[in-house]
Design brief:
Blueprint: E1 7-8, H1 10-14, E2 20-21, E3 24-25, E4 31-36, E5 43-45, E6 62-65, E7 68-88, E8 93-101, E9 109-117, E10 122-139, E11 148-159, E12 164-165, E13 171-172, E14 196-197, E15 203-204, E16 209-210, E17 216-217, E18 242-243, E19 249-250, H2 251-261, E20 307-308, E21 314-315, E22 340-341, E23 347-348, E24 353-354, E25 360-361, E26 384-385, E27 391-392, E28 397-398, E29 404-405, E30 428-429, E31 435-436
Antiparallel strand pairs: 1-2, 3-11, 4-5, 4-7, 6-11, 7-10, 7-11, 8-9, 8-10, 12-13, 14-15, 16-17, 18-19, 20-21, 22-23, 24-25, 26-27, 28-29, 30-31
Keywords: EGF-like domain
Protein name: Multiple epidermal growth factor-like domains protein 10 isoform X1
GO molecular function: scavenger receptor activity
Length: 443
Amino acid sequence: MYRAVHFICWYCVSLGFLFVTSYENIALNKAAHYVLYGEMGERKDADVVVDGRKLYTDGKCLSTKNDGELLIDFGDIISIHHITTYIKVPSGFAYLGIRGSNRSDSWGYICGRTRIHSGRTVYNISCKFDARYVSLSLLNWFGYTDTSADLCEVETYGCHTQGRYGENCSIPCPQNCQEGRCDIVEGTCLGCINGYHGPRCCRECGSGTFGRECREICGKCMGNNTCHHINGTCMEGCIPGLSGILCDQDDEQVMMSDILTRKDANKSVAVGAPAEANKPADTIPVENDAQCPQPTHSLGQECGNNTFGQDCTSVCGHCSENEHCHHINGSCLNGCDPGFNRLMCDQGCMNGSFGKNCIERCGSNCISCNAVTGVCEIGCSPGYEGTFCEQKCPHGRYGINCGQTCPSNCKGCNRFSGVCEFGCQSGWKGTLCEYIGRYNNLN
């Protein structure tokens, strides 16, 4: 259990400012080591700097030089607001550098540096970042190589888990923040998941854009409709002449690929919409983007059991792989099961399309294909046969599904109509070689 600490920075008071915080000192009694520079990287126990003792008179300080760094391990990634150090230099001044990292062997990123001098012992350093490890080290200054200091206590204030902010870390970050991270004070997101923007990432991409920071441009969607704000899918299909999940490919470019992939036995081979969003995302407009709306369930919980909307009374559509739809608007963020499309995956594929999100086209010679697999179950147009009606009738056959046999007196008939266009056997004539002829090879 962490100990909540309220303290006043007396140095700030002396300057006319009052600095008060209610964040927890997360560093208290955590693992701390002093790591010497060099190939060996020798470690020395440094628990004295996180034991809660701040006095300089009890001998519980760590003597440091610029030959190593203090490394504190919090055991997990935390959100840091500021760091308070109790440090004393014998004379003159030095510089204290602070870094954060999620790995003990990584240089990480620099939070900042602070000038320390003999006339002051307590330093509050603003460092708002997320990290598992924090390191402090003395920096050389203009050629001085014997910089030293006594470090008595290091207090790290913040939230003991990332993804929270505010007084006592009591407020979760907005749900559309990238990696669930937000400013520990204001709650503004440090980046948004795909499809959203704004200080708290409550606003969907608009005006024909989608994706990360709404920087991607939608393709040519049918009826000038905007694409899905997260993955760019044109939910109503593409304008004539274009294909692909983003409606950014010419029909001719994908025709051969369609034929080859459909030969995969009796299953949909459509590639689904990119699953780039791993969190539910709110879509209701928010005035001044102050706070994303909360779930609509009467108990304040997100809808479950494949439901969404007001009081969770609406049923989700056919979301991909039984994924739950968005608890507020019912959208399927990772696309639809094969055979369904639209934002909520509540409409079956129309004639001429099949597969995941209905983005695959039935074979051009197919009378009507299965909405899930693309198999031409009803049959093929005259002159074609096969699972996807991609094969021409073999010699000697014609008609729907190549189900008719050419007249026996034909040398070869038209695969569509059965007309003996290659002539008749000797002694026969006529369009279908059905009449006895006086001369050979008469039509």
